[in-house]
Each structure stands twice: as structure tokens, then as C-alpha cells.
Specification:
single chain; alpha+beta; nine-stranded mixed beta sheet; 12 helices; 10% strand
């Protein structure tokens, strides 16, 4: 257990992080971040980011492969067409959702819709490419020196594309859910990147930060794929079936639960999962609706992290969650849901 828990000992940005620099990736907008630590507002107990405080010029390259088929990925600016699309979609999906996510659910329906969502996205997000890498490449793919930080929300199809790529690359990451109504993480994205658009990736190993899912996926494979390429169709399929899980799940993992606790936990939770697991999906939705930051340990088929999961739980089954704040370790998705909504709720227990 100790080795799995040691995975959580990364600070958000270690003090020796390299300076943020622009990455000249021709097909995606990238930039350096002008930053002054005193300008960031943090809620109580939220870890501060350690950055070089020098002002830097932001640059943004034109991206011919911008996700335009469904307009841009969800953001908050008035110039973003998908904002209006999702502003219509969200209320509609909420009408058909199960209502209060903390209440007892029809688990037959939950499993059916989540399984259909997984079927729609097969084979992406189900297996790791680690088993095909040589031993020299293994340590780089599994354990970058500092964890990547991904700002996203579960229902976003373009965020899903990035999480699928991370499953293939067997990469762990710090996930900062940004549901609609966010009280913490969306403000951080606006401060760090200048606009509210998702997904948003920060790689403290290289100093790179970037929007646009297609560019992020290409960057991840170039940086951590050891010459590998994304699975055939991963990039192209998003506009065809990427919205299916969002629709089938009726917008779960899209909006902040109004009774979620306002303060983040002192330590990040740790979730063993892989993107296309129908049971792990339901747990990730809850983590998003509660805006709980967590460490995502991807354990797709062939993952080199399987031994970590076995050590922690004695099983290869996902989801499996570890909460260092309470000592809880739970493997059944129904019990995880109950635990999360009871523990991280503003409602006092009876």
C-alpha cells in the first residue's frame, strides 16, 4: 500500500519546475503564461502553484485542425460558438437526468447507459500501448517526473478524447474537474490561460500549457509516446461518436452539484480507472459534479500500473478509490458514489 500512496506525494507545481515556454506545435495553439502569483485567488486549503513570476508574452498559433465540427470546445467566452450549443444542451439533458445525483439510483439503467456509452467509443480508451514498448521506454511512459495537470469536465467529448489518449499512453495525471457552476477550477483556467475553454493541459515537465484536444493528443504522443501514434480513428471519431456518452448519460458529469462542499479536501483522492470502463465512468461523473481534484491512475488492458492496483486492492477491478483524507479505500462503484456524496456534501449527516 505504501508504494501506491506514495504516488500522491506530488505537489501541484514543484518549485523546480521549468519556466513556462511556448511550444511550437504547428497544429495547435500553445502559449506561455503571463503569471504573477499574487494575482491568483485560492479558496482555503487549496495548494498554491509555484511558478516563475516573471511576466511573459502569450503567443497563440493558428490551428488548421481546430475542433470546428462541433464548433470550439466548451468555453466561457462570447466568441465561442459551442458555448451557445452547450448552453442549450445542458438544460435539456438535465431534464432527462436522474435529478439529484446523491439520491438512490436505478442502477440497472445506470449500468445500461454507461455500457452503451462504452460500446460507442470502443476500442478507444480501453487498452494501454505500454505492453508494446521496450523496457527503456517503460519508465518514461508510466512515470513522468512530474504529473500532468488536466482541467476538464467528464461530459465534454473533447476532454474525453484526451483522457482516451492518456489511457493509451498509460499516463497518470492530476485531474481538476471544471463543471458548469465551478467555484474553483474554472477560475484557475481563466487566470492561467486567459479563457475558459476545455480541455486545458499543463505539463510542468516541459513548461507547456495548451488548449485544443487534437493538439493536446498529438503533443502527448510526441512527448511520451516513444514514437507511437494514437490508435486509428481516435482523433477522427470524436465528432462522430464522442457525443454519444454525453447524450446517453444525460449530461452526468457536466454541472456542479449545488450541495457539494465549497472547500477542496486537503489531499487529492486517487482513482484507479480507465477511460472506457462503464463503472469507472459513473465515479468520474460524481467526482466532477463534486469538483473534487484527484489523481487519475489509468489501468487499461495491458497497463503497467496493474501491479499498483493489485497491491492497493488485491484485485484488477476498477474503479478503485483511495481517499487519504479519511483513509477510505473502496472498490464497488455504488459504494463509492454513496461515500463521495455523503463525505463531500454540505448536508450534515443525520
Amino acid at each position: 500500500m505504501s508504494s501506491s500512496l506514495n504516488l500522491m506525494q506530488h505537489s501541484f507545481f514543484p518549485s523546480n519546475s521549468p519556466p513556462i515556454i511556448p511550444y511550437n506545435f504547428s497544429s495547435s495553439p500553445t502559449f506561455s503564461i503571463p503569471f504573477s502569483a499574487k494575482n491568483l485567488k485560492y479558496p482555503p486549503r487549496f495548494p498554491r502553484i509555484s511558478w516563475d513570476s516573471r511576466r511573459r508574452n502569450r503567443t497563440q498559433a493558428k490551428n488548421p485542425e481546430r475542433d470546428t465540427q462541433f464548433s470550439q470546445e466548451n468555453g466561457g467566452s462570447k466568441s465561442n460558438p459551442s458555448t451557445s450549443f452547450l448552453s442549450i444542451l445542458c438544460p435539456l439533458l438535465k431534464l432527462f437526468s436522474g435529478g439529484d445525483p446523491s439520491q438512490e439510483r436505478n442502477y440497472v439503467l445506470e449500468e445500461a447507459t454507461s455500457s452503451l456509452s462504452s460500446f460507442a467509443r470502443l476500442p478507444w480508451g480501453s487498452r494501454s500501448l505500454s505492453s508494446s514498448l521496450d523496457n527503456q521506454a517503460i519508465s518514461r511512459v508510466v512515470d513522468p517526473p512530474m504529473r500532468l495537470q488536466l482541467f476538464e469536465f467528464e461530459a465534454c467529448p473533447f476532454c474525453r478524447r484526451v483522457r482516451e489518449a492518456m489511457t493509451e499512453l498509460d499516463i497518470s495525471a492530476e485531474i481538476y474537474p471544471c463543471p458548469k457552476g465551478s467555484v474553483r477550477h474554472r477560475e484557475m483556467v481563466r487566470t492561467l490561460g486567459g479563457k475558459e475553454q476545455f480541455p486545458f493541459l499543463v505539463d510542468p515537465n516541459t513548461g507547456i500549457s495548451m488548449y485544443e484536444s487534437s493538439g493536446i493528443v498529438k503533443y502527448l504522443f510526441q512527448q511520451y509516446g516513444e514514437g507511437k501514434s494514437p490508435s486509428l480513428g481516435l482523433l477522427e471519431s470524436t465528432v462522430l461518436t464522442g457525443w454519444v456518452p454525453t447524450l446517453l448519460r444525460a449530461g452526468r458529469g457536466m454541472t456542479l452539484w449545488e450541495k457539494a462542499t465549497k472547500e477542496p479536501p486537503a489531499d487529492k483522492l486517487q482513482l484507479f480507472s480507465y477511460e472506457n470502463s462503464p463503472y469507472a465512468r459513473v465515479v468520474r461523473e460524481a467526482l466532477c459534479e463534486l469538483e473534487l481534484p484527484y489523481i487519475l491512475q489509468n489501468v487499461g488492458e495491458g497497463s503497467l500500473r496493474t501491479n499498483l492496483l493489485l497491491e492497493a486492492s488485491g484485485s484488477k477491478e476498477v474503479p478503485y478509490i483511495i481517499d487519504p483524507n479519511t483513509g477510505a479505500q473502496i472498490g464497488d462503484y455504488r459504494k463509492i458514489l454513496s461515500y463521495l456524496f455523503q463525505t463531500y456534501s454540505t448536508i450534515l449527516p443525520l
